[in-house]
Amino acid sequence: MNNPVNAINRRHFLKLLGASALAGAGLSGKSAFAGAQPHVVVIGGGVGGATFAKYLKLYDKSVKVTIIERNRQYLRPYGSSEVIVGNATMKDLTVSYDALQKNYGIDFVFDTVTGIDFDGKTVKTAGGQSLGYDRLVISPGISFNFEAIEGLTQEVSDTLMPHAWDPGAQTELLAKQLKALPKGGTVVLGVPQNPYRCPPGPYERAGLITQYLKEHNPTAKVVILDAKNGFTTDVTMLQAWNRLYDFNVPEQFKGFEKFGGREKAGLVKHDKPGNLQWVMGEMGGRVVKVDPATKTVYAEGETVKADMINIIPPLRAGQLAIDVGLTDSTGWCPVDRVTFESTLHKNVHVIGDSCIADDMPKSGYSANSQAKVVALQVKALLAGQAPGEPVFQNTCYALAGHPDYGQFVADVFRVQDGKIKRTDNPRYLPVDLKATDKRYALSALYTHAWMKTFTDDCFA
Q1: Percent of the chain surpassing pLDDT 90
Q2: How is the chain split among helix, strand and coil, in percent rounded to 5?
Q3: How far is C-alpha 334 from the geometric centre of its chain's CA atoms?
Q4: Phi and psi of 247, rounded to 5°?
Q5: Is the pLDDT of residue 29 over 70?
Q6: For residues 70 and 73, what is the distance between their CA atoms, to the nearest angstrom?
Q7: Local confidence band at 54 (pLDDT 50, 70, 90 cut-offs)
Q8: DSSP annotation of 23
Q9: What is the pTM for the complete model shown?
């Protein structure tokens, strides 16, 4: 990856790679269905479900596709942290399903799933509908393990310590809390252990809040309490914080060693560090308890009393997946890595955040990539054909905080020995302490351009 432009062109190519690799295996063209029109039911109209439905109809118009979704509009999680700091609005996050219905002939049932009869291949809804399927695709997103942190409950999160990891009322609450933060106040952001949705997301949020406070409340501080010792885009993110916010990288951080340590040697050591602090896992950063009454957060090695508390609990598969028995002891959904068919129930495929996908992160890009591949695999299976050899990809974009400081990481994945493994390719925005602001600004431009084109790819 020699420069950001080449990186973008490479990713544009990769966007087509997953589908073309399978299409080249003989899965393109009209399927040889016999008898009644096959019916594929999709539960969940987020990135994974919407992309799957759209691309299955693109691959074969003869398949009947029905999406069951509770909400009549989609609120996209990606970019939602910008609402907290006022760089975007909830309206900007709102996506219509109209194009999927009008342009691709996808049917929608706006209702809540109440049960699945896996033997009878039937989905039941709260409104009394019963939908039979030939193949079922579930993209149920995530749910939150509040029990993992003492004192944290759904009610506490809804009213006092919002996670805002699903966009909606909690996002708006967090934005109000930030605006109401007293002068010189303290913000705590708690980050869970892997796996969780959007690996660089909590750090992007921390940077955005730090930038907001730099402009509106410069004596306030941000404390990241982290269960981990590193994260996706950590090297480039920490470099940017060092430059933007007088941030001193913890001595315990070992991430620069993979680059020979030269970048760490070039970082500025600030005698008066700025107002952003990162407490890594080995420094005692894992949050274990909260006291809502005193607004106190207890980590393994730190106790912080704060004015604004944003705790992201450990995540697990979407509640529907748990309720219907698609998860294992890990709290996630085991699947066949080639077809994403559940290993617990036949004719059911789980894609997106809820599935176990090994090296693939839980991200919108991953869900989109999985959806396109699984659409081709389902088409083949319905036609009695063998599934193809999949290729997946992911790119995570993130802002460092300042709207003109972006970064990214790009990966390609293949199935090896029954697992999805990352291939050995250049991943990051080039690590260069002497990089000009224009390079980071271009990466930020990519970030916002991606959000628009990606949303169109899924829903338009």
Answers
A1: 83
A2: 35, 25, 40
A3: 18
A4: -85, 130
A5: no
A6: 9
A7: very high
A8: I
A9: 0.91
Q: Could you tell me which residues come within 8 angstroms of residue 99 by beta carbon, excluding any fewer than 6 positions away?
A: 459, 460
| pLDDT average, residue stretch 318-324 | 98
Q: Is the pLDDT of residue 211 over 80?
A: yes
Neighbouring C-alpha atoms within 13 Å toward the C-beta of 126: 7
* Interatomic CA distance for residues 154 and 362, integer angstroms: 22
Closest CA to 444 of 404, 412, 417, 395: 404
Write out the two tokens for 404.
């003109």
Across 103-112, 249-258, 325-334, 399-408, least confident range? 249-258
Q: Give the DSSP per-residue string, 178-205.
A: HHTPPTT-EEEEEEPPSS-B-TTHHHHH
DSSP H helical segments within 67-200, as ranges?
Answer: 81-84, 90-93, 98-104, 154-159, 169-179
Supply the DSSP symbol for 295. T
Note the pLDDT of residue 262. 57
Burial of 180-199, coded b for 16+ CB within 10 Å and e otherwise, reads ebeeebbbbbbbbeebbbbb
Angle among Cα 352, 165, 107 to the nearest 5 degrees reads 45
Among 23, 25, 56, residue whose Cα is nearest residue 39: 56
Tokens of 162: 């919002």
CA separation for the pair 401, 224 (Å, rounded): 14
